[in-house]
Amino acid sequence: MPLVSVHELLLKADQKGYAVGAFNANNMEIVQAIAEAAELEKSPVIMQASQGAISYAGLEYITQMVTIAARQASVPIALHLDHGTDFDQVVRCIRSGFTSVMYDGSKLPLEENIAVTKQVLAISRPIGVSVEAELGKIGGTEDNVHVDEREALFTDPEEARYFVEQTGVDSLAIAIGTAHGRYQGEPKLDFARLEKIRNLVNIPLVLHGSSGVPDEAKRRAIQLGIRKVNIDTNIREAFVGEMRRIMEEKPDEIDPRKILKPARQATVEIIRKKIRLFGSSGQG
Ligand SMILES: [Zn+2]
What we know:
Blueprint: H1 6-16, E1 20-24, H2 28-41, E2 45-50, H3 51-57, H4 59-72, E3 77-84, H5 87-96, E4 100-103, H6 110-124, E5 130-135, E6 139-142, E7 145-147, H7 157-167, E8 171-174, E9 179-180, H8 191-200, E10 205-207, H9 215-223, E11 226-231, H10 233-249, H11 256-278
The structure holds zinc ion (ZN).
Residues 83, 138, 142, 180, 208-209, 230 line the site of zinc ion (ZN).
C-alpha cells in the first residue's frame, strides 16, 4: 500500500491504547528488517530517517527504499523525518515524499519554536503530512544533536499545554528522563510529569531515547499516553552485534551478503520484540 501518515496511525493507537514503534532506517537491510517485522507481527510501523541517515544514504534513496517497502507490505507504513532542525530540510523531505516530519525546535526559545512549528504546519497540513514537535531537551546524542545529560531539561506540563494550543501540532515529543544513545545507569522516568502533560495535552505523545528504558517502564509510559516510541540504538546494537559476531567467527568471509543477511535477521527479531511490547501486533 502507499505510505500512510503518522497522524492516522497515532490516532488509532490513541483510541486503542497502544504505541506505534518508530524505527530508524539507515540502510536497505534495516528498511527490509523493519518491514518484515511489521509484516510478521501484522503491525503498523513508522520508519524514520534522521538528518544523519539522510546525509549517509541520500534523501532519494531513503525515500524510495521506504516507499518500495510500503508498497510491498500489507500493513501500513509511514515515513518520518526524525529531528529535523532545519526548516529547509523539512521542506526537502516533504517534497521527496515523507508522510510525516518532526520539526525539532527544542533548542530555540519557546516563542521561536512555536513560530517555526506553525510555519512547518502551514506547509504540511494542506497536503496531509503530519508534524511532530519537541518541547524540553532529551539527553544524549542523536547524530549531530548533543545535549549534556546534566543540562537536559524536562518538559514543563503548562508549557506543553500552551505550545499545543498555540501551534495545533499533531504530536509532541516530551522529555521525561530518557536519553538518546547508550545509557550510563538505568534511566528513571518521571511518570508523574507524563500524567500531568497527558491531562493538559490532548494529542499523541512521543518518547525519544527509548532504547535503554526497561520494558516495564516503557509499558507504563504507554499506559499513561505515549503513542509513538522511537527506537534506534537497539537496532544498531542488534545489527552491528551480529555483523561483528559473524566476522569474528569467519574472519576470511568477504561476501557482504553472508554478513549482512544474518545482521538483517537479528534486526527483524529485535523489532518484533519491540512491536509486541508496544502492543501494536495485530493492529495493521
Ligand atoms: Zn530523538
